[in-house]
Amino acid sequence: MKLFCHFSEDKLREKLVSLVQMRASTASVEELYKFIVHHKQKTKLIIDTWASELYKAKPYHKLYFMVLANKIIQEAEKSAPELVLAYKKCLLMVFFHLKNSREDDYLRNGITVILKNWSELGICSDLVEAAKVVFNDLHISGH
User: Fold this and answer.
1) In which domain of life is the source organism classified (predicted)?
2) Which pairs with CB-CB distance under 8 Å and at least 24 residues apart come from 121-124?
């Protein structure tokens, strides 16, 4: 499969579906990460499509979208800072959405791991603090 094929919203949706089907395997996250960073000039469309697909996903699939966002936030700061910023901006609304979906322990535990990781790395402190408010019973510590 050609990694950096022509970008389209449909192609991104197809790759997001594949991410879910592959249960966010390391390889599937890495492939989609590279595709998204390569097409960073389409940041608005990427964020809109990612969020749209996350909102439609089953609760236990939503974590896969957060795993991808986590990878982008942690690893794309130098190569695609505008993409990282766009993800950070949309995540507060996503947190409210996830709070309403969190009857799924897998999702809840995964979100907690991501937020603890951010806290330990000293990144996204504003989002970690916001998440503590949104998910008022999560125990997140770190920096």
Assistant:
1) Eukaryota
2) 121/74, 123/73, 123/74, 124/73, 124/88
